[in-house]
Design a protein that fits this description.
Distance between the termini: 13 Å
Radius of gyration: 18 Å
Largest sheet: 4 strands, mixed
Shape: elongated
Number of helices: 2
Number of strands: 4
Strand content: 25-35%
Number of domains: 1
Helix content: 10-25%
Length: about 100
């Protein structure tokens, strides 16, 4: 979905994503999206892993210590992702253009 992976130049490449929930505005520790591994266009079968970071935001009235005022769904979310270009490069498309994909 993030990189239109169904249309990678090598159809035998796929990515496995893991989403982590952290504060994305923290200075320490720093949580950034990561790509682990890479593939080549000539690979018969290959996978690379990605990690995205999401932060949930809840109403300021939510009190997690009282069941009567507990909100179980976030009001909104912020996410950090790698660019489509970076994901295409990891899939083996070394000439992936930022202007074409992002």
């Amino acid at each position: 979905m993030m990189a239109d992976s169904e249309h990678f130049k090598n159809p035998n490449v796929y990515m496995v994503n893991s989403d982590q929930f952290h504060r994305i505005s923290s200075v320490t520790p720093i949580h950034h999206p990561i790509i682990n591994g890479s593939c080549a266009l000539s690979d018969e079968k290959c996978a690379f892993n990605t990690i995205t970071v999401t932060q949930n935001f809840y109403s300021s009235e939510t009190d997690f210590t009282k069941l009567g005022r507990f909100q179980c769904a976030a009001d909104h979310q912020s996410a950090k992702l790698k660019s489509r270009q970076a994901l295409r490069i990891a899939s083996g498309e070394k000439d992936a253009s930022f202007h074409d994909y992002d």
